[in-house]
Amino acid sequence: MKRFEDIGILLNEAEKQLQEISDLYQESLGNKKINPRIGVLVKNFFENVRSPLDYLAKEICEKVLNFSGVTGFPISSETKEGFENFINNKLPDLKNRHSELYDELEKAQKYNRSGLHFLPLLAKLVNENKHDQLTPQKKIEQKTLEISFPGGASVKMGHGCSISGGGTISSGGAWFSPAGSTISPDSPVVVGQGIQQQIFKWVSFQFQTIDREVKEVLRGSLNEVKLVIARIKPHLNTKT
Length: 240
Known about the structure:
Strand order of the largest sheet: 2-1-7-8
Oligomer: single chain
Helix content: 40-55%
Number of helices: 7
Distance between the termini: 9 Å
């Protein structure tokens, strides 16, 4: 089986795992604890998303460099110097042999404005899950308060927002007053006729070590890996 076929299989499996992870999170919304199976699925997801980049590096070595040494894909270089050192060690002479391919790899690095922002997170979390532990996750519950007036005007307050004072807030002939107290999603106001007040609860699941929403990181990592492959593959003249 050709290497790009293997890449396609892994990424398709990652898509299925992402859907299963989303379903398990949905089931966990009303529970105090997160389903422990999610941590295992996330670890396997990261492996299925990371491996295609190493397969891609191997393809570059065979098709472009005729290099049989230990290789790897530059996923999160912090500086241009760091990127150049990585290329010299893992993909030697790439700049001379295929400058366009070299440029494509450099575009993906963190230090570039056009760099991809989820790949460094992928590198960190893959290493953490492989060598240290299943990355701990936390459940975050937040509230949003929305006060709607006749005619369509509204006031929305999210986490950390509040209104206080002694004046009035009015629109469409209706009004309310904080009356010297503080109004927030955790402390709503007593409203008068014609005003509708709603509290929305929003639940997210985050990686504890990076304080980023789990599904955002998973989807972003998968999309960026697909993007890298789409950019690199034409330079390798590979048919699947």
